[in-house]
Write a structure and sequence with these properties.
Layout: E1 2-9, E2 15-25, E3 31-36, E4 39-49, E5 56-62, E6 67-72, E7 77-80
Parallel strand pairs: 1-7
Antiparallel strand pairs: 1-2, 2-3, 3-4, 4-5, 5-6, 6-7
């Protein structure tokens, strides 16, 4: 597992600051698992564009569908959902 520091925004749009996040990559280099705040998030297959930044993002989910995290593909930020 690789640890990166990512700026996190909570579900209410509040900046939580830069936090260490664990990531696991596939053989092709794409992130498929994110470890954050004691949870393991797995790529859901959904992707989009962040309206605030215009950057491409990928959705990761934990506990079925209850917790979601949108991670910028360049690992510059994540939004809790």
């Amino acid at each position: 597992m690789e640890t990166v520091t990512i700026r996190i925004t909570d579900t209410n749009g509040r900046d939580k600051g830069a936090m260490p996040v664990g990531i696991e990559r596939r053989a092709d280099g794409t992130v498929w698992v994110v470890h954050h705040a004691g949870e393991q998030y797995v790529a859901s297959g959904k992707a989009g564009t962040n309206v605030r930044t215009g950057k491409p993002v990928t959705e990761y989910q934990a506990r079925g569908d209850a917790l979601r995290l949108w991670l910028a593909d360049d690992l510059s930020f994540a939004d809790e959902d």
